[in-house]
Amino acid sequence: VRIAGFIVLLLLAGLVAFVAWAWESAIDPAAPPAADAFDAAHIEKGARLSLLGNCASCHTAPGGRPFAGGLAMKTPFGTIYSTNITPEPETGIGRWSKEAFTRAMRNGVDRAGRHLYPAFPYDHFRLMTDDDIGAVYAYVMTREPVQAEAPKNDLPFPVNLRMAVAGWKLLFLDEPKPFQPDPARSAEWNRGAYLADGVAHCSSCHTPRNVFGAEKTKQYLAGGEAGDWHAPALNADAPAPAPWTADRLYAYLRFGMDDVHAVPAGPMQPVVRNLAGVPDEDVRALAVYIAGLNGRPDAELARRTEQVVANAKQKTAVAAPAAKQTDNGAQIYAAACASCHDAGRGTPGGALPLSLATSVHLPTPNNLIHIIRRGIHPPVGERGPWMPEFAGALTDQQLVSLVDYLRAYFGEKPAWRDVAGNVKELAEP
Amino acid sequence: MIALNVNGRTHNLDVDPATPLLYVLRDNLELNGAKFGCGLGQCGACTVMIDGRPALSCITPVSVVQNRPVRTIESLGTADKPGVLQRAFIEEQAAQCGYCIPGMMMRAQALLERNPSPSDDDIRRHMSPNLCRCGTHMRIVRAVKRAALALKGGK
What element of type H or E holds A74? Predict the structure, then answer.
């Protein structure tokens, strides 16, 4: 009994120590900043950083006002709703001082002292400089205030306890430290690394996560998830058959199109759309840094691209006779897909030969299923790459045959195990 | 031979399996309601219903339809006896040149059969693949809303 009592005491002491450690005090409400409190150039800089950080994509509900929050984010732990980051004093962040805002960006703690869920990527934003965080603060504090209370998160015990997030931080988060440039690399590369790992938080989606939802840092940019889409690997294992050179990645990120790669779809579409408003040199820096991850010289990559494109051309040329086989998927391909994808026309006008399409070469068929069902549509009222939806045209069974055929014929990797299961699992558009 | 069920009638057709459903509807069955707009599935003028879901018939090979029932605008009513949705479009004067309207109606019909009380947002999202170059979208949204009310109220 004495030993049991001792253990209980020890546990209690541990709990008290943990709570004392995890306790964050509230930062006093500040008077909402005056309209002329910020310098125009600083606000403008914040606007560009906010585009790089894709802030509006998560902090805006479908059809809602920009930055007013309320977007439901489904995580393996439950549903988290994004918060209102307009400067509205009651439901937004109107009473947040710059100090409170900086603490949220670096340590994931809100003004009142509550730990924030890491769906808000403070594990990346902490890398940003004081001046950059200040610029984003200046930008959001000068947006139109919107009164909008975010819906309550739908999380089970114990994840619903904010203190649990402190435990998560204890396990998976180091002390924030500023970006360390690599002196052996160019200024452009370092700028790209700073943006990619900081405000742009690429690895939030492109790095796999462990069971606690923390990034597996040893598998940096090795392919992760964005909702039920696969976020392809960006490192040496990048699945696109034509390697990404800095020039090609720049074209993709800058213009949403590169002639030997698929166009942005799903969650990557708003990312690329936002990059249209970012300074050219920042997009170029991102491309240089990310493309550099494959670690091979540009000349070798260019040779490989030539080879892959030549193979793709040959493959599309023989696709038509192959499609005469009785296989259902081949027939559907020949009748429904080939007139664009197999017409020998490049983009724009024609569509990408599917042996070059990233979605055919991924570890999961999810992206391919999504794209066939929903098509690819530019945002309402804007121009952009486009593909019609086939959800109403094809039965689920036909979709499975088509996806299996595309993988077998145009892919180079083993068949996906249970396409029917994925088709069933993914929500109908 | 391909068997195709359209508006409740089964037709046996001697056509290339890769023929777009739209061509079969218009050329073989003389159901000229569904329109050829862009031929790329980009505009929605060719929209029909397959098994209750809206589908772009210009990019749907007839072979994939199989035994699923197809419905076209001709199933909704006639000039003398317009159906509820058609009446709503007339009452809202939702057509200008009218070329997109059969596709609009079939997409709207698919929505109303699945969701009898759609919000404005539901209607806009659902109808977004279909284009109207005359710009009657606002009236179309109102017509769909009117039809939903009429269907519920039995008006």
Answer: strand A72-75
Q: How far apart are CA A97 and CA B86, in angstroms?
A: 57
CB B148, CB B116: distance < 8 Å? yes
C-alpha–C-alpha distance, residues B65 and B21, integer Å:
8
| ipTM given for this complex | 0.94
pLDDT tens column, A375-389: 999 887 788 888 999
Residue A398 contacts B where some CB pair is shorter than 8 Å: yes
Put simply, whether A122 touches B (Cβ < 8 Å) is no
Averaged confidence pLDDT in chain B: 96
- Residue B13: phi, psi to the nearest 5? -125, 140
Nearest Cα neighbor of A373 from A400, A412, A404 is: A400
Instruction: Count other Cβ atoms within 10 Å, centred on residue B78.
Output: 9
- pTM beyond 0.90: the answer is yes
Predicted local confidence at residue A379, as pLDDT: 82
Q: How far is A339 from chain B (nearest CA, A)?
A: 10
Contact at CB, A388 and B66, closer than 8 angstroms? no
